[in-house]
Amino acid sequence: MREITLSRAVNEAIAEEMRRDPAIFLIGEDVAEAGTPFKVLSGLVEEFGTERIIDTPISEPGFMGMAVGAAMTGSRPIVDLMFGDFIFLVMDQLCNQAAKTHYMSGGKLKVPLVLRTNLGATRRSAAQHSQSLHALVAHIPGLKVALPSSAYEAKGLLKTAIRDDNPVVIFEDKLMYNDKAPVPEEEYLLPFGKAEILRQGKDVTLVGTSSMVQVCRKAADLLAADGISAEVIDPRTIVPLDEDTIVGSAKKTSRAIVVDEGHQNFGVTAEIAARIADKAFYYLDNPVQRMGAMDVPVPFSPALEDLTVPTPEQVAERARRLCRGEI
């Protein structure tokens, strides 16, 4: 199987879906001529033209509102939000309009819209361009939230999102755009709400999201050298969340660590850990552990920024202590 970058996987997913369905268009800042700051969309405007790949003014609330209206009236827009940090600017259109329209219309209206954006620190982009804000939208009923962890997940989840009749927010880790992974040339879709067990284990369960999946895989390698068998799970989507797979793994291993790049307080780690504690309490030998980003604005200083996000070594050490009964 060929290996391609996450960036190319996203580009392929959008192109394939736009060829399939003329109702799909893409809108956002610098999406046509510049191909976005990360060059993910390069080449799309040459194939589909400026009527379907639409550059907008720097007005996130404006173009998000346009997309919501277009989705309600028969189109299937993909909104490109340059940085996930800008999601604060579109929260009314996303959370009060797109998320609630189907419910408030008694099922008569739908909003088949995809908001694709990014997350992740350690890119030296400072406090206003380095946040991981997926927990904010996961809190809102009516929205689905996907977190691809590699090029394979990025393409399969995005194609599923584009075909969904509900509003979907998909977060890509901006540090992973050049990371390669095996991706089939033939068409495939990945179902929402179905986690992937990436590595079987019997001593501890590591649940990671987005880039933290790769951190957990590296931590599992470190643990294997110590004779500790770690099971690694990628939820792929946090809304809907595959609770059965995660809880089933925790019951099997009797220990669990949840790792996410969002801030730890009131975040994704808390929700997943709570579900494990609710459903697997009597199977656990130790309390569920959570590892998230430090609850501070992301620093610009590289030395400080690198301290804010969980590393494979930190996850492995937490797992060792968990297995030794020190936690």
Structure description:
The protein is globular and about 60 Å long. Helix 3 runs parallel beside helix 4 (91-98). The strands form three sheets. It has a seven-stranded mixed β-sheet with strand order 3-2-4-5-7-6-12, sandwiched between helices. By secondary structure, it is an alpha/beta fold. The chain has two domains: 3-182, Rossmann fold, CATH 3.40.50; 196-323, 3-Layer(aba) Sandwich (Rossmann fold). It is built from twelve helices and 14 strands. The model has no long low-confidence stretch (mean pLDDT 96). Residues 4-179 form the Transketolase-like pyrimidine-binding domain. InterPro entries: THDP-binding, Transketo_C/PFOR_II, Transketolase-like_Pyr-bd, Transketolase_C.
Structural key phrases:
327 residues, Pyruvate dehydrogenase E1 component beta subunit, Rossmann fold, 2 domains, Transketo_C/PFOR_II, 5-stranded mixed β-sheet, pyruvate, thiamine pyrophosphate, 7-stranded mixed β-sheet, alpha/beta, 14 strands, 12 helices, oxidoreductase activity
